[in-house]
Specification:
There is one protein chain. Helix content is about 20%, strand content about 20%. The protein is an alpha+beta fold. A 3-stranded antiparallel beta sheet has the order 1-2-3. A hairpin with a 4-residue loop joins strand 2 and strand 3. The chain starts with 8 loop residues before the first helix and ends with a helix.
């Protein structure tokens, strides 16, 4: 049995040019909250574990590894 990989509904609906270029930890984390700003189309990711915006299409910061994803899948 293979585990399903979470894919953000917001990332599925937004322009891939506004997504992280690399496979960040947040892209497949069910605790991530992706959103797009109405003005300018900027995409951001808010982490519900760290309580901060962890990624923005206007900044280069990317989370490579994170324990939050493991905690989310353990919690069920």
């Amino acid at each position: 049995m293979t585990a399903e990989i979470y894919v953000s509904p917001t990332l599925q609906k937004t322009d891939p040019r506004h997504h992280p270029e690399r496979a960040t930890a947040c892209k497949s984390c069910p605790r991530s909250m992706w959103f797009q700003l109405a003005e300018g189309g900027e995409v951001k990711c808010y982490c519900k574990e760290m309580y901060i915006v962890v990624w923005s299409s206007s900044e280069g910061f990317e989370v490579a590894l994170c324990d939050g994803q493991a905690k989310a899948t353990e919690a069920g």
